[in-house]
Structure formats: C-alpha cells, structure tokens
Amino acid sequence: MAGVTRGTALDRLMRPVHQWVWADGDRRLRKLLTFAEVETDGGRDILRAAEVTPDPLLRRLYLEHAVDELRHGDLFRDRGAALLRARGGGRGVLLGGNPLPGGHGLDDLKIEGEPDHRLLAFLHVAEKSAAGRFTIYRELVDDDPHTRAIFEQILRDEVFHMNYTYTQLARISPRTYRRHVWHARAKRIWNRYLRVAAAAAGLIGNALLTVMYAVVLPPFAWLAKRAERREPIGWVPIPPARRQTPPRSQY
Amino acid sequence: MKILGLSAHYHDSAAALVVDGVPVCAVQEERISRRKNDASFPVGAVEWCLQRAGLEPTDLDAIVFYERSMLKFERILTCALRAFPQSWRSFPHAIKNTLGDKAWVRGIISSELGVPRDKILFTDHHASHAAAAFLTAPTQHAAILTADGVGEWATLTVGHGERRADGSTDITLRREVRFPHSLGMLYSTFTAYLGFKVNEGEYKVMGLAAYGRPTMMEQIGKVIRRLPDGAFALVPEYFEFQTTADRSYSSKFIDLFGPSRHPYDPIDLESADGQRFADCAASVQRVLEEILVDIATRLRRETGLRDLCFGGGVALNGVANARILAESGFDRLFVPPAPGDAGCAMGAALYADRIYFRHPDREVPDHPFWGPLADGPHLARTAREDNQDVTELGDDVLIARVADELAAGRIVGWMEGACEFGPRALGHRSILAAPHDTAMRDRLNRDIKRREEFRPFAPVVTSDAADRFFELPAGGARLARYMSGVFPVRREWRSRLAAVTHVDGTARVQVLDRDMAPRLHALLEAYGLCTGIPVLLNTSFNVAGEPIVTQAIEGYTTFRRCGIDLLVAGSTIVSKRAAVAAASSKESGAWSSNSAAASTVA
Fold first, then answer.
1. pLDDT digits over A212-229, tens only?
2. What pLDDT does B9 receive?
3. Distance between CA atoms of residues B483 and B166, nearest Å
4. Which of A15, B75, B86, B546 has its CA 20 to 30 A from that of B509?
C-alpha cells in the first residue's frame, strides 16, 4: 500500500511549497483548521450518499466512511485548537481557510443527482489523492508528534476508503469501472481549473470594482453622506404611500 | 388560489404554499439540502411543496418573494457610499455578492420555476415578518412588533393587525427604526465578539448570559443610545459591519470590552476572561430585554390592545419574550414557530392572500408541523437491511414501551408525522430523555449533541401539568406552546428536573396541548405514570452543525452514529441495545468483492 500512497508527481514536485506551509506555526494552524472544515463537509456529503443510495451494502460502507471523515474533522479541529491554546490564542490572525472559492465538501458534488458508480469513482480518486498528500504531510511534521499521529491514523482510514470504493465500483459497474475512474480524474482536473479560473476572475473583478470605487464613487459618496446627515434618527413614520407600493415592484 | 411564498439568499431559505387562504405545507431548504442554514434559492423546498400539493409550477397563481430585493440593494450601495473611503475593501465583495444573483430575484424565480414574470410579487421584509406573526395567531386584533438584523432598510417596526367581522384583514406598520440602528445587529455583533457564529450562535449568547452578571451595562450604554422618542441608535464608531465584511465590531469596541474570544478558545468560567465573556453576554441580554420591554410597553399604551404578535429573528430570544409578557402589559404574546426569515416565506404568502388579493380571512391551523413526513415502514425496511433490531407495535404498546425505556435512562430519537417549520423541535423531530439529573445532560452533550456545556436543554410538559412544575405567568402557556419563552422552574422541582433547569433556575419549556401532538402527549402521560413527572427533556433531533433530521432515513443515520439508544418513527422502533453488534466493515472485510457479492445475493 505504501506505493499507492506515495503522492502524485505534482505533489512530490510541490514538496518545497508544502514544507514552507507546514514549517510555520500560523500556516500549520490554518491548514489544520481548513482540513477540519473540509473533512467535516465531506463527511456530511458522504452521509447524504448513505441516505440516498438504494444499495444496502453501499449504505453501510458510506456510513462508516462518513463517520471516519467526521472524526477526522474533529481530530484536525482539536489539534488546531490545542495549537492555538498553546500559543496563547489567535488574535485575528486566522482569516478564512482555502482562498479558492466554492467547494462545499466534495467539490460541490450534488449527491442526490449522482449515481453510485460516479460517486464511488469520484471518492476513490479523491481519497487516493488525499492519501498521497497526507503521506507527504506526515513526513513534514516530524517535529510535531501529535499532528503526525493524526496523519498516520487518517492514512490508515484513507487506505480502507480507496480500497472499498474501488472494489464496490468494480462490483456495481464490472465492465466500465476503469472508464469511470478516468472520467473522475478528468472531472477533478476540470473542477480544479474552474476553481482557479473563478479565483482569477474574482481577483480581476475585485480590481475593476476597486478602481471604479476610487474613480466613480467619490461624488456619489459625498451626496450620500450629505443626505445621511439630514436623515432622522429614531422612529421613522412609514408613509401610507409605501404601504400601497405595487406588489410587483422590487423597490 | 395557490400562492407560493419564498425566502432566500441571506440565511435560512424556505418555501411555503398557501392554497385558498390556508397553509398546506412549508419547509426550510436546509431540511431538504441537509446544509445547515442553507441560504441558496430554495429549489428543493419548492419542489417538495409542489409535489406535496400535487401541483406544477404553472398551476401557481402567484409566487411571493419575502422582500424587495432592489430596495435591499439600494441600502447596500448607499451604506457603502456613506462609509466611503473605509468601505473600499467590502465594496467589491458586496457588489459582486448582490449583483451576482440576489438583485435579480424576479429573473431567478421565473427561470427556476418556469413561470411568467407577472406572477411574481414582492412584499416588504418586515411586512412578511408581521404577517407571519399576526396571520398565524389566534387573535382578532393585535399590536405587532417585528425586530431583526435588517430587512430592506427597517430593523424594527411597530403597528397593528386586524381581522374584521366582514372577513377582511389589515396589517398596518406605522413606524420603523432604520439601518444601521438595529437590535439584531447589536446582538449579532456581541455574538461574533464572543466567538460564536452569527445567525447561529445567538442562542449561545442567551445561554451564556445566565452565568454572568450584567456588570457592563454602562459600557453597552456607550454603544447603543436610547432616544427621547423611545427608539435607540447604535453609535457608529463601535461597529464595522457597514465598512467591512471581516468583522462587525471596531477597535474602539475592543478597547471598551477587552479582547474578543477566538472561536476555538474554550470558555472557562473560572477564569477572568471566561467570566468577562459571561458578564458581557448578561449585559447585552439585559439591554436587549429592557429596550424591547420599553418599546412593547409604549406600544401597549398607544394601541390599547391586549395581544401582541412578535416576529423577526429577535423574537427567538425566549428570555426577552418572557419579560415582554410579564412587564409590558399585554395579556397574550404570540410568537410564531418560525419567527425568523424562514417564516417570512409563510408570511409573504399569507400577506399576498389577505392584503394584496383581499381574500377573506381563513383560520390558520395552530401548529408548526408543515414539513415532510417521517416514513416508519421505510425506516423498518432500511434498519432490517442493516440487521438492526426492528419492532413494529401498535400505538398503546409502543408508547408504554418507549416510556419504560425513557424511565430506564435511555435516549430516544422520536420522529412523527410532518416535521416542524422553524428552528425548534416541537415534538415531531426530537431527541427525548429523562429530565431528572445532570448526568443525562452531560451524556447528551458528550455523546450526541457535542455542544458547549453551558447550553441548557429544554423540557416538554403536558399543558395540564405545566403549572405544577413551572412558574408560568398569565399567557405563559401560550408563549410556551412553541417554546418561545423562558420561565422559572418551581424551586421544589429543580433538583428533580436538573437536566433541564438552567443555572439561573429557568427553562425554555414547551407546554404541549393534546391536540397539537397527540402521541407525544400520550408519551408524556405514560412517562408521568412511570415516574410521577410528566416532563421530558426535548432537544432537536440533530448533531452539532447539522440541520434537524427530516426523513426517517436521516434520523436513522444520525441514530447509527451517535449515542441514541432507541429510534422511533411512526409505529417502528429500532433499538441499538439489542442490535447485532456488527463488526466494522474495515475489519470484517465487508467491502471486499467476495463478501460484497455474498451480501448482494443475500
């Protein structure tokens, strides 16, 4: 199994970046708390899968998988909280987690609409990738035995997750399971592209709106501030005319 | 006439269907999507409502959105302009957020449902709150008070509602307090300051308040001023919710109250910081109560009416509600089961029916059970597939057995009929347990709810026995119908109701009439026969961070992964006690192809 969880070539290539992230206390903390959210969200999505699948065996396996993911979320959260306490509390240094937009749980997967074969393929690919990355992380937190122990524990679960998803995929789609795995890999890459593209679009949008804010808004801001000064504070009577606003008006 | 009410995009989306003036069904989107406080457009809730009523979208005569979205956009834009240049960071976010979808509600509804745009109507946000409170209450003529964070511009309104003898209905909101002056925003700011999630952690502030003393009233008097006309104003330099999306309080606020609490820091009431946070919660709670009691008292004097209908998210504050009832002079206080934004879906639909279309008033059934049904046979089938211990019993036997189990200290997941509309479990999606000792409270907190130790659990009691255990003022039983008031537990019962008695000797009790939930009522009576106390601990059927369960299968997966001993849905009981202790699939190899095949064949 060690070969399976070596990490992808990209992850190995990114090792210096991972090292940079895990070497710093703040970044380590942020990463752990982000993982806590991602694992918990993912666990809830898999729980949903357990609720909607018509296959009793898959329901049991999904349920066990979901319980694992929720527990992983707790482990990461508890470790993050312990690190936070150890360094005397965060004082606003921890903003959001992942800077990329979207991505509730499993890549915004709509569990209700996904047939089991597609979900299993997706889970298999995601678990395999996570196991690879966690193997690298485990090596990078040698100085922190508690965090390392968490990665070790999670890695054991991830191996079970990627194996059961593959076996079950082969069971329910004996002829096409390889194609489903390739499709899941391609979709994962596409989703990553979309997230990066959305993040880039967001940045461009922010820049344009900020320019607009600085260039176009000042006169309107002056008018708005002047109007504000004339506004009464306290009770404001509601004029009868407003009660007669046409129901189709959005204003 | 078929009218669909919708609320969406900020928090707690929902859909409600009113047919010929009477609600048929209503559900929050989170109960369908299984994402807590889901604010997205409620496609799932709409689909379920239409399916339940056997309608197609084209059958609808009107779709009513609970607020005027462009007016809200105007407020967001105006506030950004007023806060220029400090708002430079929040402006792009606010504009993208609003212009992304929130401003184009008519187009979204039209395209999602495939209905003509002229069928889509709008109401004022606070008119929706007012309608949800007044049109669902059994009163002819009542004063109306609404209070929340913010709607379009209004944050608090007062007025009155009247059902006339000729069947016509009127709701008149006379005056309002406008953004940024907001009791909801004040409370939410302290919620964030105390390290809790806004729009979710306000309950925690209320629970924490009981551990503190209101020693910071003077400081809070600096951040919110009372005005001679009885209204109030927030002092802008203490708040940042207008200028940034990152934080709602300013550095000056921190100078006044001390460093804020990080969400991951535990609250240790033995420490100076922990006590400071508790005192802070107690102080803001006291200020909120006093302002609300004062406004309600003036409203009582002004209108001369005996009933008050209270809506908006602030009406979820049970401690304040109890004080309004006790001190404002109103005889009865009606708070709907969903006073927050979700309830606006129902309010908007009823408002359109009675006010826009001028249809005669119809009596609205006085219960909160408008959501999807729990399917007992489905639960039985699923549990049997998983080799769980399943029993199907007739009503009398089932109730006697569950009462015995509860008396023996077991925890029961109780699902029955349609789920509640609103944030509270009122007996159809509840976790029930014996209310007698604190060990049960700790067990629930540790093994099931996984929540802060300082948060209390609520009791449910039959209406006949309520006065024996709780000090209910006149009108208290009505307020407690939907668990909307916090009242003292009688001193002599506190030690025997320890799991549901908060540190200050109070409880957020639900007083249950037989008509509202007959089976739970029967269970309470049976439990009373076993123990002499017809009171049960009643908490929502969910674990932390998840919405309350809706379908039986969701109750089942929750039951399987936490410390609930017994699951009941309709006539089906699933018991963990005698369940086959199946080995973990990891060890048993259930996932491997051979056993998988065997399992499939079996």
1. 999 999 999 999 999 998
2. 92
3. 33
4. B546
Q: How far apart are the first and last CA of chain B?
A: 51
- Residue B392 in this model has a pLDDT that exceeds 80: yes
Give me the interface pTM, i.e. the ipTM.
Answer: 0.89
**A102 contacts chain B (CB < 8 A):** no
- Helix/strand/coil (H/E/C) assignment for every residue in B246-264: CCCECHHHHHHHCCCCCCC
Residue B171 within any structural domain of the chain: yes
Q: Given CB atoms, is A56 within the 8 Å cutoff of chain B?
A: yes
Is B484 near chain A, with CB under 8 Å?
Answer: no
Contacts A63 to B, Cβ<8 Å: 557, 560-561
DSSP secondary structure letters along B304-349: --SEEEEESGGGG-HHHHHHHHHHS--SEEE--S--SHHHHHHHHH
Q: Which of residues 317-356 of B touch A (CB under 8 A)?
A: 352, 356
**Domains assigned to chain A:** 9-212 (1.20.1260.10)
Looking at CA atoms only, how far is residue A126 from chain B in angstroms? 18
Count of A–B CB contacts within 8 Å? 178
Residue B480: give the domain boundaries.
Answer: 370-575
Tell me the percentage of chain B whose pLDDT exceeds 70. Answer: 96
Whether residues B245 and B393 share a domain: the answer is no
Q: Which of A124, A81, A152, A96 is nearest to B261 (CA)?
A: A81
pTM of the model: 0.92
Is B396 found in the same domain as B320? no
Whether B258 and B377 map to the same domain: the answer is: no
Whether residue B588 lies within 8 A of chain A, CB to CB, comes out as no
User: Are residues B326 and B437 both part of a single domain?
Assistant: no
Smallest CA–CA distance from A213 into chain B, residue: B88
Tell me if B34 and A48 make a contact (CB, 8 A cut-off): yes
Residue B430 sits in the same domain as residue B465? yes
Contact B88 A221 (CB under 8 A): no
* A-chain residues near B559 (CB < 8 A): none
Q: Do B146 and B114 reside in the same domain of the chain?
A: no
Q: E strand or H helix at B122, and its extent?
A: strand B120-122
The count of domains in chain B is: 3
